[in-house]
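Memo to structure team: turn this sequence into structure tokens by end of day. - J.P.
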Amino acid sequence: MRSIAKKPSTGAWLRSGGAWLLLVIGTSFLATAAHAGEGVWTSGGPYVEYLMALAIDPSAPATLYAGTWGAGVFKSTNGGGSWTAINAGLTYPHVGALAIDPSAPATLYASNFHVYGGANAGVDGAGVFKSTNGGESWTAINAGLTNLNVFALAIDSSAPATLYAGTWGGGVLKSTNGGESWTAINAGLTDRHVSALAIDPSAPATIYAGMGYTGRVYKSTNGGGTWTSTSDYPNRDVDALAIDPSASSTLYAGLGTSEFSFPPMGIIKSTDGGANWTESRADLFVLALAIDPSTPATLYAGTRGDGVFKSTDAGGSWTAVNAGLSNLTINALALDHTGGTTLYAGTDYGVWQLTAPTGGITASFSFTPASPSAGQTIQFTDTSTGSPTSWKWDFGDGFGSAAQNPTHAFATAGAFPVTLTASSSAGSNTTTKTVSVTSAAASSCFEDASTMCLAGGRYRVSSHWRNQYAGGSVSTLSTDKLTDATGAFWLSNADTYEFLIRINTATDNGRAWFAISTFTDVEFWIDVTDTVNGQSKEYHSAPGNKTLIYDPYFFVYP
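Reply from structure team:
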């Protein structure tokens, strides 16, 4: 669960739900203030430990709230420059989640959880508190709240009196009257250790609940009336959930683990509302997620011990953005995208902020088609940010390229890790994507007056030309198949060839070699298709060109 913290110190370990907290004895931790600037983290406090929750006032983005484990709630009205404790009436100082009423931002909610060792670990808490005056005073709102150890809160933005509370051991509870009363909504919820909640912004009756211990994400499409499980990652905790505001069927889950003997699981992604999940990043212990609503392909992940990571391609690749950040366990993230993006991070010591988190090179790329077959030409397109000046591609099959936007064909089916390193004088960055290549479907070759079939009928070859002396008219050329591996094309006289084409398949580089000898000054194109694997290429001879066109690399063979 997301309250795991480790520091190089002596102290007492206390268990919180499925995790351990280090209670430091006799040691202080001072935040190192970085020089302000875009792309560099800075901190203005509050200088207390375990910042577990963050919330930004939607009507006044310079106003934000921070919930802590052990020191209650703090408020800043100057964008994190300074902080004030606001705990009047908050009888319990361990705050795990915050939520703001978007229609009345002076109304906010804070959930409490407790820590005990031994058999009582994670049992008690103080439930949910409510403030209607911007945190100046708080009142407990726990009528019907059967479990007071509340780790997650979610508020329905379309009906802000509707709240959901995720508890550690008691499942999900719901209030439809601003917290005056609560009802358990656990039908179908076989796991009850809730560590994350998220509401679909376009369909608020759809709710997701992330679980500790089992790594499951449950989904309800009827406001919590019933639940179904959509994922299963045993011995993992779903510590964070985030929904793409522009495409709500796309969601991300951040995974950690309550057992230190298990490796981290990182980030998983679903593009079909949780029906299926794929791995986005595997080697991180993720405690928090935030999506930029103005550019939803940009998202951030807060980790335990590795700082903040950023993706600009919807989770396809991730880059650390930790310049100036001296506290690398990130328990909470909040993003203000008004007037230039500011990202806030709740760490194990203080709230840090990153203004306009750009800077540096972030390597990324796309490729088409998305599901290529063996032998099919794939177009790779560099989409890196930060103005790289050189590129190094490794296609994962022994081939590479230094072009910015290369093409490549894989000889066989399989999953190939394609790596791009984008560089400039300012540095470099590397990203990897897996290209899944399927077996190619075979087709047929049929000869006619303008088409020949070479190499046992495998390669379909045709040609057309443009007459630069007759207004640029275009027409096909006639064929003359000379051998199984050689053919000729002519215009008006079958005895006068414009060019010859020869295919050599007895090669040692896994490619068929094509040689085209030209004898004409007209402009022509030759279209070659491999009917076995679907690979195709068009060769072009410019006007006046009478040189050899030679290609020993493109067509995969066999």
